[in-house]
Amino acid sequence: MSRSPLFGSLRRAFRLAALSSRGGGRTPPIDELIDMAYSRRRFLRQTAAVGAGVAATSLAGCARGEGPSGPAGSTSPGSPPRVAIVGGGMAGLNTAYKLSKAGLTATIYEGADRTGGRMFTATDLLGDRLTTELGGEFIDSTHDEMLALMAEFDLERLDTQGAGSENLRAETYFIDRRHYTHAEAARAFVPLAEKILADYDELDDVVDYRNAGGGVELDRMSIAAYLDRIGARGWMRELLEAAYVTEYGMDAGDQSALNFVFLIGTGDLEDATAMSLLGDSDERYKVRGGNQRIVDALATRVESQIRRRHRLEAIRSRGEGFTLTFQTDGGVIDQDADIVVLAIPFTLLREVRIDVNLPDVKRHVIQELGYGANAKVLVGFNSRPWEAQGYSGATYSDETFQLAWANSYLQPGSAGGLTLYSGGTPAIEAGQGTPEEAATRLLAGIERAYPGALRARNGKVSRFHWPTFPWTKASYACYKAGQWTTLAGSESVPVGNLFFAGEHCSYDFQGFMNGAAQSGADTAVAVLAQISGSRLPAAARRYSRRQLARLA
Fold this sequence. Notes:
The chain is of the alpha/beta class.
């Protein structure tokens, strides 16, 4: 699971290399494995329409049947508890929505004048009829909560691996000014695969602040140092660094090596076959019309509960409850609550005065949790010149743009759009100068990858720079070296009637829209359990094995 289709392709290249490495001569050559897997994908495309209809019906039925069946209990007889949710992004909205379905009304306090957080869609920004994602973009087939919400709200999926995509090369690696194929990447991975798998196999299923799980050495090591250790060199080394810096938004010298091993090494190779290696659904979906339609649908359903332009300045204990201090257009106000859900990034929470007795690990994670820096420079085109050359536009590179994809892919009309996605230090640099100056600098590499592309520009350019966006000041959570075994898993742990939600609170989906959505759903379950006095409600079946292990 990854944040862009290209990282998914890199993981599949690793799995091909790993199976080849462990096959002992019994496994077909890599090129044959790829052909076999793509043949399966072509077959699945032919039945996609029927499958999508069945899945949508099933998901909609599940969505209608989820959640507690009746009103929540109360912390005092005869009156429901006052629940305050700070943050109107995906996590906060989904918490409120799930609580409302259980009969409990929470008040949402959002500092900005819009809801939706990092799910942010622009229309006609790069061309007529084009939707462009400024924030979270891709939805994986394993993102159950996101898919369930799409089905519940009757939102159409845009399948980037569906019909219409088979005639284009899905991805390319443009390193040292030449294109490398998926098969070449898999072959280059072979000398590294066994070393990575050996390290992965030494780790427990759960590595967090309570259970180091054999991960201390790798956790304290940076990705750059780990690549040195396993002997990654040449164009594959450049590709891996570009991939992880963009994926997590942090320089390779600062990230924990466990980020590398966990994300690239996951998957049960003992049961893997040539038919499963390429997968059918990694990072394949968007919402037609924009992902913001999901959070807009949530906001519509809890609109009367939302208080916008309420920026949290302080929280202090008041008995078993809390007093929240907000800066509003009308001045500073206090609001009391029995239960509080803090659904804002820790980059913002660390600026809030917290007069609550918190465990040391909670204060430490709020202050120190690493966050990535990512930027999108968005460029419009009159046509889609990369498609004319046989490519989808998805490109990893050692050029200054690092990672690119066509945000116009499978959208109607002839206009095109590219997202130039940077991470780490290059993302900070992408925020310098005007958007046009940033685009000019980054597009030089695009012109080398796709000659003639610059002639197709329509003059439209924009930029979204998450490190300087005042309501996040970062892109998403990313563990620095040493933070897996000291902080991981502590983000979501509640303190009495104080709960925490957001992508940063999701162990399995940290950094993803689904992490925020699932965290919101899980937090609603936890709040209802707290009110009812139940330690682990039946709805905890939604928790992953790792989450349940931490609750035990």
